[in-house]
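User: Could you write out the 3D structure of this protein bound to zinc ion? I've included everything you need below.
Assistant: Certainly. Input first, then the structure.
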Amino acid sequence: MADVLYTNVRIFDGGGEAPFTGDVLVQGNTISRVVKTAHGQRLPPSSSMIAGAQVIDAGGAFLMPGMVEAHTHFSWNDQPSLDAIQRMPPEEHILWCAEVAKKYLDMGWTSCVGAAAAKPRLDVVIRNAINDGTIVGPRYLAASQEITVPGGLGDTTQPHLPQPEFAFGAIVSGAEEMRRCVRMFAKYGVDSLKINLSGESITGMPGEMSQFTEEEIRVCVEEAKAWGKRVAAHARSAWSVKQCVKQGIEVIYHASFTDEEALDMLEAKKLEHFVAPGLAWLINTSHHASQWGLTPEVTKKMGYHRELEAAIDSMKAMRKRGIRILPGGDYGFAWTPHGTNAKDLEYFVRHVGMSTMEALLSATAWGGPMMKMGKRIGYIREGCLADLLLIDGDPLADITVLQDKARILSVMKDGQWHRAPPVRNARATRWAA
Ligand SMILES: [Zn+2]
């Protein structure tokens, strides 16, 4: 692909400052020049650097780094139950995952962190297929299945059908079974192990309940680290959040119920952890799932309304303490369909008290370390990888524009167009300011 020169863009560079007008040159897969044009400066048109580059005159459109989704389940199939997700035959399931991967890129998520697959190898196969160019998708870290206990969250087997093929999660009991399980997923090539430390009310086990012994968790982390893998936890209860900090589980999903001790522990190690609360799951399960029999009356009884309030309080407290809260979480259920993920940013602003700037940073600058890529992504800076979104509108004024595919004019990943901007005339591309 030819080099690309974006001119006349409002650049949100991921550093936290107000956007500035300028030009951005992409050469190969890298951002090679970022020039402010506010003072009449420009990349000289005769410059050999831009000779032959495709010029995108963006007419003042908003250029931002590609977004990072911190809690992704490509294999959740927009169905209303764990069973309905898990029972999809493997052949259809892998095609589904490939379709979803493309959808994330369509919606501006150029990187996704896998948070558990519904079958042992779905995530690994999809990651590999993206990396070798067989299918189109975001940068991806592949997860294991959810590791759980007999009777715990993710054990969907029936007493007369105990086979692992009927289980949503990987079921272990005791330290040695845990060790074997982690080794098996390491063999398959996952990037991270997912462990369910707490319950999930919709499955019958309350979110405040915790499963696993400390010893089982310790072995999981020890074995994962021995293989160079990361551990991520489904951790709704305060006890489970504390276990994440105590035992070095880097990625904490949900963290709805916290107490002062949990918050203090997390704050003390805030640069060692990421929190992705998945508020959309709590909000939609509480209030927007009646069509599937989960009326607000039902979900209130299940405890979701109380949990939503607790989660919002926890996230507000974490934000004040400077703990990194990232977007993403359990999209891929019937009432949280894939592709609506940017709702999380709206909820951060509306419920957690983030500014639109903070919400954007949570999806960009913080995404680099979440992807284990440091500052190579998440910024528009010289030397960074070219994951870029051109937006019709200003997400700093209205964060919801990121929910609208039509407003995401172009998506570039690794210097390649996933979606090139619409060309409005023969010579250049321009949008009304
Ligand atoms: Zn999840």
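The chain has two domains: 4-66+379-419, 67-370.
User: Perfect, thank you.
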